[in-house]
Design a protein that fits this description.
538 residues, 21 helices
């Protein structure tokens, strides 16, 4: 039908629904339906990042894998996720934003089913890599969709809807995973994605704006060199971060090779993308100062978000001897506080300079870390309640305003590429944070154990008195003298380990707090990000 016949007959009901989407931003209930759809897709990806952590032991026995082998269930997903995120803008532009988002959702659900049905380690890892490749597009695309759907005055509450899933996901994942693993088995941590994913797919088909038809537009050339170099550099970097600590870092030739591949691949990737006419990743968007600075600070927030969530469960399970489900419940109040704070911050962030909120959140989380540095062997879940609650509040005070300050001032055409790069830095920040904190924890534990051991010798009267008491207690339980003595030495060693680990955790929390304070001046370089104009461009 020609355009003249359309004008003569008048628009159909379907055309009346699509017309506002082509002329401007959706209005009324439709834009909120789009927000829920985008956020649901992002939440699936974030939860699946951490939900498997508590089920690794069950998976290991089920598929007959070693500890290092089963770790690739987490590593493979993370590597695939990081590789695909920078490509989301190009994929959306090439195939259509709605098509790509729906394809990613459907693929993520199918990959989840394959993970649940996997009968071998290789099948499980391959399915997780596929899940990561398809899911990575949902995270960056969801935030991009929200920025393109809502006007600047409503970006705060829209990004709050997105942020609830991203912030609460790392905390909900272990809790949900522990419950499903204990009650139904580890395969259900993947099958649970099916009903949620189906709902998300149906909502995406119904509510997301149709892709604009651009007749006569040629399919852009595929930047295979850029994609290949991106996969090599980010894949090597992510593997380096994931496996470095367990392999002894640069003592391993494999880790050295990964470091060289990551460095060389990254340099060649940057050169290729800046010189290519149609790059797979548009690095030129970093000309916007707000995006460049915000992405750096996003890595710090990623460290605070994912790094501390990594540390707290280790503390709870190694020092407090919590089960996986108890550990999840310990983290849950902070996750709920984040969700509530996200809604409040959504309304406040458009009325207050986001830089002020980011700075306040950074100071608060540093104070929380310094408070956690005073933990002791008698610390229980009650003493951790308020620090973890304030941690949840503090992260939101940084996360949501930082998204607005980083992406809110970008021109609409640069938002997809900017969102992809911004989300990439947060994911990498989390990986770097986990690797850094794991190394600090291991090194400081070794240091403190060596220092404490200097004061515990068989010639020390207090040590001898303690050893005799423990030996007597073992003999009272029916052990002979030699066995009782060995048991007493073992208990003394365990006590020493526990004290050294406690001191290592104290050092670790000091490190995290200081990182937030040291990087605080970066906030001054951010834009206000509330006018929707292209400010902060070099």
């Amino acid at each position: 039908m020609t355009s003249s016949s359309k004008a003569r007959l008048g628009p159909t009901s379907g055309e009346r629904l699509r017309l506002p989407q082509r002329q401007g931003q959706p209005t009324g209930w439709l834009k909120w339906a789009i927000a829920v759809t985008a956020s649901l897709g992002a939440m699936l990806v974030v939860i699946d990042t951490s939900i498997v952590n508590v089920a690794l032991t069950d998976m290991q026995s089920s598929v007959g894998a070693t500890i290092s082998e089963i770790g690739w269930v987490v590593t493979g997903y993370a590597i695939a996720n990081v590789i695909i995120i920078p490509l989301t803008a190009w994929l959306g532009d090439t195939f259509g934003k709605k098509r790509y988002f729906v394809f990613s959702l459907v693929g993520f659900v199918v990959a989840s089913v394959l993970c649940g049905l996997a009968g071998s380690l290789s099948a499980l890892i391959a399915s997780r890599i596929l899940q990561g490749l398809l899911g990575g597009g949902l995270l960056a695309k969801a935030q991009s969709i929200l920025f393109e759907t809502f006007p600047p005055s409503e970006q705060g509450i829209a990004q709050a809807a997105f942020g609830v899933g991203v912030i609460a996901g790392p905390a909900i994942g272990p809790t949900l995973g522990g419950y499903l693993t204990d009650t139904l088995g580890w395969r259900w941590i993947f099958f649970i994605n099916v009903p949620v994913g189906v709902v998300a797919v149906l909502m995406a088909l119904l509510f997301l704006p149709a892709d604009e038809l651009r007749p006569g537009r040629a399919m852009p050339r595929v930047d295979w060199w850029g994609i290949g170099l991106l996969a090599i550099s980010l894949g090597s970097l992510q593997t380096f971060l994931e496996e470095g600590e367990s392999d002894g870092w640069f003592e391993s030739q494999f880790i050295v090779l990964l470091a060289v591949a990551a460095s060389l691949g990254l340099l060649l990737f940057i050169w290729r993308e800046l010189s290519a006419r149609q790059p797979a990743v548009d690095l030129r968007v970093l000309r916007h100062r707000s995006l460049a600075v915000g992405s750096v600070y996003s890595a710090v927030v990623g460290m605070g978000l994912y790094g501390t969530i990594f540390v707290i469960p280790i503390f709870a399970q190694t020092v407090l001897h919590f089960t996986a489900q108890q550990t999840g419940l310990l983290i849950m109040p902070g996750a709920l506080a984040s969700a509530v704070m996200m809604v409040l911050m959504g309304k406040l962030s458009t009325q207050v300079d986001p830089r002020l909120l980011i700075a306040t959140g950074s100071v608060f989380i540093a104070l929380v870390m310094f408070d956690l540095a005073h933990i002791n062997p008698g610390t229980g879940s009650e003493a951790l309640f308020w620090p973890l609650l304030w941690r949840g509040v503090s992260v939101v005070m940084m996360f949501l305003p930082l998204s607005l300050a980083t992406l809110g001032s970008l021109p609409k055409a640069d938002i997809p590429a900017g969102s992809g790069f911004y989300n990439l830095t947060r994911q990498l920040g989390g990986s770097i944070g986990i690797a850094l904190l794991a190394t600090v924890l291991d090194r400081r534990h070794t240091f403190h154990r060596a220092v404490l051991s200097e004061h515990i010798t068989i010639y020390d009267p207090q040590t001898q008195e303690r050893l005799n008491a423990l030996t007597g207690a073992m003999q009272s339980q029916g052990f002979d003298a030699a066995t009782a003595h060995q048991q007493a030495l073992s208990l003394l060693s365990q006590t020493l380990d526990g004290q050294a680990m406690m001191l290592a955790f104290e050092d670790l929390f000091w490190v995290v707090g200081l990182i937030f304070l040291v990087t605080l001046p970066l906030v001054l370089l951010l834009g206000k990000g509330s006018k929707g104009a292209a400010v902060g461009v070099h």
